[in-house]
Design goal:
alpha/beta; 3-stranded parallel beta sheet; 3 helices; 3 strands; about 40% helix
């Protein structure tokens, strides 16, 4: 197993393409369409890496990064 990745991206097609590519290379991938959804997933999914969009609806990428780092 290569590791776990959480993709937080509001553009569904882009998130799907990244997920498909990473899963083909052996990664365990979960996607979230908003920062709020991604932060909620951190409770049950402990990713090694978070791919985080900067421009998100609601909480933006920088605010989400601060919250991820505090966890």
């Amino acid at each position: 197993m290569s590791g776990a990745i959480l993709i937080i991206e509001d553009e569904a097609v882009l998130a799907k393409n990244m997920r498909t590519y990473l899963e083909r290379h052996g990664y365990d991938v979960q996607c979230a369409a908003s920062a709020e959804e991604g932060l909620a997933q951190l409770d049950s999914f402990a990713p090694d890496v978070v791919v985080l969009d900067f421009n998100l609806p609601g909480i933006d990428g920088l605010q989400a990064l601060e919250r991820i780092r505090s966890q």
